[in-house]
Design brief:
The structure is a homodimer of 155-residue chains. Chain A has 155 residues and is mainly beta. Helix content of chain A is 8%, strand content 31%. The radius of gyration of chain A is 17 Å and the shape is globular. At the A-B interface, strand 1, strand 4, strand 6, strand 7 and strand 9 of A face strand 1, strand 4, strand 6, strand 7 and strand 9 of B.
Amino acid sequence: MSSQAEIVLKPIGVVKTAAIDDEVKDKTRTSQIIINSELAEALEGIAGFSHLLVLFWLHEISDEQRKTWKVHPRGRRDLPLLGVFATRTMLRPNPLGLTMVELVKAEGNVLTVRGLDAFDGTPVIDIKPFDSWDTAKDARVPTWWTKLESEKAQS
Amino acid sequence: MSSQAEIVLKPIGVVKTAAIDDEVKDKTRTSQIIINSELAEALEGIAGFSHLLVLFWLHEISDEQRKTWKVHPRGRRDLPLLGVFATRTMLRPNPLGLTMVELVKAEGNVLTVRGLDAFDGTPVIDIKPFDSWDTAKDARVPTWWTKLESEKAQS
């Protein structure tokens, strides 16, 4: 297969949340992931993990927005203009969201999770168990990133 | 958009490595990610991060293999039969790999990274900077997982 070939994914489920707008960023909120019922058995054993990595499709990003190569993080012109791969912007060639969440409950084809910053109706693409090899101790991040994080902590 | 609609991705680059077979699991090895040249500027600022999350397409998984709902982890029949979403198996409805890597060097459209367990020629889908909010302290994992991890550490 050429590295340029198209890749076709199908949603495995959908996000259900009462949160709107910026409320989805509230890490204490819970939301639900409704897995397609024919995939329910693919969840067996998931309750053994306290945390999951959720991959979702940012379905509101347009084809035009996918052609963005540079952004000011969070639209802030006081911060440097950066390549999209150096940020977590939604404007990416392949607009996939990735969030680590806490698994609160797994029941049938429904997962209740805490900390998923995805809107109601967002298609879910994959769910992976989280383990310590997904982490790095003392990861280094740039100054602009630290600045945004400290502002967020104070707000 | 219906949550069942198809999603089309295009590779942003490709993995280049001399590692073959199980050598790709060697976390001390470096490999390269060759980003499509027209996307080179989307990497600007990436060198500010020590670690990245790399999403790649497991292009050798067949359409038939994507219909696997349950597996024994690493094919081991002494371990429980589990849903694919409770494991990191490549056999998933949407066969995407996700690995945290160390960024060794960023030069032009080429990233040199350490710890990427992807074969030569693997299409890369997205690259995201890694930060501490991608981690959980004291994440709980099941017994079968700990068993496999401790065996790996001894090998």
